[in-house]
Amino acid sequence: MESSKFTAARSDLSPDSWDTHVHVFDASIGPFAPDRSYTPARATAQQLLDFNSSLTQATPLNIVLVQPSPYGSDNTVLLRSMKSLREGGSRIVRGIAVMDIENISDASLMELHEAGVRGLRINKQADGKSTDLESLKETILQTASRIQYLPGWKIQLFCAPAMWEGETHFQLESEIEQRLKNETDLYDTIAALPVQVIADHVGGMRALSKLQLNAATSRLDDPTKQPGFEALIKLARASRVIVKLSGFYRLSDRTESGCDDMEPIAKALVEAVPHRLVWGSDWPHTGEGKDRVNRGLEAVEEFREIDDVRIIQNMRRWVEDEKAWMGLMVHNPAGFYA
């Protein structure tokens, strides 16, 4: 058995819990895409099993393996790793793939479904570049139209937080401003989709330690008032969005304290939409898109050292209600990824 440095201290998670956001990077079973935005270090399926098992001190958690951007739309590593995870002891393994939706057949999509894939990912944060909103909307609509007939399939979206806003959440001064707003938000698009959307990494909602670094949000004293948060909750209440509590270290600068300033955001979500939440570790903790803009592909991006157990322990304190906690960790994901 391959040893792993990616382990964690005891967190006392139930063995029935789900980790809904993890990656495998293993060039030995599939090449990276030539047009990738970064070259990650190695993180194998066995190391993932070791990490997940360490969170329960027992069997590995149920796992949702997410296709990371360095592999583009070649899901070879994803599918082979899903098989390895099952063989290694994970009871339920699901996948979120990435596909060129215009060039895949219905038969190929069904093959992915039979392999355990339950959705497609659209990631607009990996390369640190700006996002063309109209292009993103078109991609979302095309993806939804193709996957809507596949049982349980969803779109997993990683985008900037303000993109969730809808026109009803703004006081605009003129008809021109209103028209511009309608052209730059995703709210109405997502609300009308025939499939549900999974909001990666808390929909991008940032803690105060991150908000204060940005001139546009530096005066906020309540992170639940940041652009996009109200709209995200409204979409979740309408059963259009599932919010993934993951990647806290991307949203907070207080990693040494387990990202404790994410507490107001987490508590607000648990109070408003406990039935629409899932958790993910985001193992093995890759870097930031903004740091990759001028970095060559020959440079290997090492993973960040994150205290996952402390984050989980913080979350357990924030989610005081036992029913809400079991929903977050066990029952909600079991239903969403059936």
UniProtKB/TrEMBL annotation:
GO molecular function: hydrolase activity
Domain Amidohydrolase-related: 18-290
Pfam families linked to this entry: Amidohydro_2 (PF04909)
Domain of life: Eukaryota
Protein name (Swiss-Prot/TrEMBL): Amidohydrolase-related domain-containing protein
Organism: Colletotrichum simmondsii
Organism classification: Eukaryota, Fungi, Dikarya, Ascomycota, Pezizomycotina
